[in-house]
Design brief:
Blueprint (H helix, E strand, L loop, with lengths): L1 H16 L1 H19 L10 H14 L5 H7 L7 H6 L5 H13 L19 E4 L2 E4 L6 E4 L2 E4 L5 H9 L37 H15 L8 H8 L45
Antiparallel strand pairs: 1-4, 2-3
Helix pairs in contact: 1-2, 2-3, 2-4, 3-6
Length: 276
């Protein structure tokens, strides 16, 4: 009887704490049913900001959801988060949630973290050479084949430079550069698998010099024309990596109203066939 009473009290505490989540589960079920009855049209889907709360609830409560409810929330049938994040149908807010969840579990994807020797694990993509014309400039620029990192440098990778004994504090990496007294942007703690943002040109240069020394081959910032060529998937005839028409699903921009960085994630683009 005593054990039963204690179990009942524990259950009551859990129900009280999870009351909001349980209410949200009911709302999901009702909304999913209505969406399905209306033929699964987009106008009956929840907005991204409301889905954020649902994704957080799922992470805490792990409720049993049927196929209709999962499709309503945009979840994959097999809980494969990486497959879900590569799917163009996945909404930006869901991508952000998945990226943060990967970060909490120590994101081990190649290209976003560190190698066993604590150096940045960078996946390189081959970009074929071509002649590039920059907008508003009559001159053309020819570049030979080069490689560019698959993902932007992440906070985990840039932070390894700040922590290394021969890293940021080693003045040799500043040789020939103008005096620089600013604090490195990476001094702020950010999410490890997010892009390293607000890093100055000086810090970028010293980071590249450090990588060149540690890797044994030259690592540098791309030129403007190299960056443009890479941004078109290695085909100067394209405007974007995936083609000529803008597709808001393929980029984290103001249109999605997320207003923050997310984990370094590259959706499957047609240009990936050109990169190895």
């Amino acid at each position: 009887m005593r054990l039963g009473l204690q179990a009942g009290q524990a259950l009551a505490r859990w129900v009280n704490e999870a009351r909001g989540d349980l209410r949200l589960v009911r709302q999901v079920r009702l909304a999913a049913t209505e969406w399905d009855q209306k033929g699964g049209v987009e106008e009956f889907l929840w907005p991204d900001k409301r889905l954020d709360a649902a994704y957080d609830m799922i992470g805490r409560l792990e409720p049993e959801l049927d196929e209709t409810e999962r499709r309503f929330l945009g979840l994959t049938p097999n809980d494969d988060l990486l497959a879900e994040v590569e799917d163009l149908a996945t909404r930006h807010h869901r991508r952000a949630y998945i990226g943060d969840r990967l970060a909490k579990n120590c994101d081990t994807r190649p290209g976003v973290g560190l190698r066993e020797d604590s150096l940045p694990d960078i996946v390189w993509c081959n970009v074929p050479g071509a002649t590039v014309r920059l907008e508003g400039i009559a001159e053309t620029f020819h570049t030979g084949p080069f490689r560019i990192s698959k993902y932007p440098i992440t906070w985990a990778q840039f932070s390894s430079f700040l922590r290394a004994d021969d890293g940021f504090e080693n003045r040799r990496w500043l040789s020939g550069l103008a005096k620089h007294v600013e604090q490195p942007a990476g001094a702020r703690k950010e999410i490890d698998n997010h892009p390293a943002t607000c890093v100055s040109w000086y810090d970028s240069m010293t980071f590249c010099r450090w990588l060149t020394f540690r890797f044994g081959y030259e690592v540098r910032l791309p030129t403007e024309w190299e960056w443009q060529l890479a941004a078109t998937g290695g085909d100067p005839g394209r405007k974007y990596p995936w083609g000529f028409e803008w597709d808001p699903r393929r980029a984290n921009t103001n249109e999605n109203e997320l207003r923050r960085t997310i984990a370094c994630i590259r959706s499957r683009l047609r240009s990936s066939e050109r990169w190895t």
